[in-house]
C-alpha cells in the first residue's frame, strides 16, 4: 500500500517568503534561568527546529508574570546574539489577563512595541492576534497590523483561535495575505479537520500552527476509552516504526496536506529531540484514518 508523502523539514510560512521548520517549539511554559532556557533553545535548534512560538501572556500565572517568557528569551538572545539569526521568531498579543481581549489600535500597537522591547529585537518574523476581540472592527485591526508591517516591526501576520468567518473578515480588509492560523488541533481535537479551517488554509495558503498537538497531555497519558483508543491506533504505527506515541501524534498531524506544524510544548531537551522523529514516520491512508475513526468513535460513512 502506498504511503502518504513524508513531511518536509522546511516549508514556506504562508506567502511571506519566510521558511520555517515542519515542527515549532512553543514557550508557553518557558521559565527558569537563562542557562536552562539556552539549553532548551539549543536542543530545539539541534533537532532542526527554527520556528519559535511565544506570546506576551506566556509566563502569566493568574496574578503576575505577564511578559516573563518573552523577557527570559530576550535575556538569552542578548547574551547570545548569534541565536537570533537562526530563529524564525513568532509572538502573539491581544489578551489582557485574566480574561478580556483587546485588539484596539492603541492597545495592540503598544503590545507589539512591548514585545519587541522585552525580546530585544527590532522585528518579529511573525506576529499573531492571540484571541479575537469581538469589540474591535476588523477594519480597525487591519489598519493597526498594516502600520506594524509598514514600520518594519513585523514581517508576517497571523491569527490564533479565530473562527473561519473572523479570518475571512479580517483578510477582506488586509492588503497583504495572512500567513498563519493557530488553532487547537490534535488527534483528540478534530474541530479544524471537520469545520473547514484546514480546507480554507489550503485554499488561501495559510500555514496551520497546531497548539496542544498532544491533547493537553492526554495522548501520552490517556484516561477515557476514547483516549485509549486513539493511543492504541497511534501505537500501532509508532511501535512498527520504532518511534514513540508522541512522535506519531505529531506526524499524524504533519501528514495532512494542509502542512500542519505542531507546536512542541515540552520543556525537556530529550523530548524535544524525540519530537524530530516525527519526520521519519510514514503513514498509509488506512493507518491515518484508523486514528481518525478512533477519535470520532464511529466508523466513516
The proportion of strand residues reads: 5-15%
Class of the domain at 10-182, according to the CATH hierarchy?
Alpha Beta
Write down the overall geometry: globular
Widest sheet: strand order?
Answer: 3-4-5-6-7-8-9-10
Radius of gyration: 19 Å
Main sheet record: 8 strands, parallel, barrel
The total of helices stands at 11
Alpha-beta content class: alpha/beta
Query: What is the terminal separation in angstroms?
Result: 22 Å
Helix content: 25-40%
DSSP E strands, number: 10
CATH superfamily of the domain at 10-182: NADP-dependent oxidoreductase domain
CATH topology assignment of the domain at 10-182: TIM Barrel
Organism: Allopontixanthobacter sediminis
InterPro entries: AKR, AKR_Detox_Biosynth, Aldo/ket_reductase_CS, NAD(P)_OxRdtase_dom_sf, NADP_OxRdtase_dom
Protein name: Aldo/keto reductase
GO molecular function: oxidoreductase activity
Write a structural description.
By secondary structure, this protein is α/β, with parallel strands linked by helices. It has a domain at 10-182: TIM Barrel. It is built from 11 helices and 10 strands. Strand 1 (10-12) and strand 2 form a beta hairpin. One of its GO terms (cellular component) is cytosol.
